[in-house]
């Protein structure tokens, strides 16, 4: 029977990557190309700008034709005014995570959550007046073929918010153009 390597031998063979971005050429999914986005951040948001190995690169300008992936989150204004703020934010988080997890094998979701993009997610948080409006929006999205999660708080059975899966902004922005930013 062959002897197992000692912990000290294993640790000596471990070589940490030189940069937190060294996973940039790792495939997230077999169907994705190595580089799923040409967008580069000047530094990852989770690292200080002085962190070694974070090279400064030019960020995209408004003039380029990049169609950014975005997730829309829509909250109910009546609940924002009546519930503790943390409770309403939590509802939005539930819907967002559920929408992403429910579509975890979708190409846009894989790109949105890829190592290259994880620190530069785009979300737009909007509001509707109340329950009727959130239910109408959910129906409109379903009729338009837009995948989303309408979060129903249990056991009260209250529709509190909804979130889309990530989409290119140009594909979904028209469904939300009449809604106000949540403030």
From TrEMBL:
Record key words, sorted: Hydrolase
Segments for region (Disordered): 34-63
Pfam families per the UniProt record, alphabetical: PTH2
Keyword DNA repair annotated: no
First and last residue of the signal peptide: none
InterPro entries noted in UniProt: Pep_tRNA_hydro_II_dom_sf, PTH2, PTRHD1
Keyword Hydrolase set for record: yes
Name of the top EC class for this enzyme: hydrolase
GO molecular function terms attached to this record: peptidyl-tRNA hydrolase activity
EC number(s) on file: 3.1.1.29
Catalytic activity: an N-acyl-L-alpha-aminoacyl-tRNA + H2O = an N-acyl-L-amino acid + a tRNA + H(+)
Protein name: peptidyl-tRNA hydrolase
């Amino acid at each position: 029977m062959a002897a197992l390597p000692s912990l000290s031998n294993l640790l000596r063979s471990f070589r940490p990557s030189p940069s937190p971005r060294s996973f940039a050429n790792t495939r997230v999914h077999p169907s994705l190309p190595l580089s799923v986005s040409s967008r580069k951040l000047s530094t990852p948001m989770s690292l200080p700008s002085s962190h070694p190995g974070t090279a400064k690169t030019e960020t995209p300008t408004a003039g380029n034709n990049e169609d950014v992936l975005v997730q829309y989150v829509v909250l109910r204004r009546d609940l924002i005014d009546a519930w503790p703020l943390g409770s309403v934010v939590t509802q939005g988080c539930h819907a967002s995570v559920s929408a992403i997890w429910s579509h975890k094998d979708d190409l846009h979701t894989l790109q949105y959550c890829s190592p290259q993009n994880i620190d530069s997610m785009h979300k737009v948080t909007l509001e509707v007046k109340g329950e009727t409006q959130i239910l109408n929006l959910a129906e409109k999205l379903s009729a338009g073929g837009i995948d989303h999660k309408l979060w129903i708080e249990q056991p009260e059975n209250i529709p509190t918010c909804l979130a889309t899966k990530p989409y290119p902004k140009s594909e979904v922005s028209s469904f939300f153009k009449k809604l106000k930013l949540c403030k």
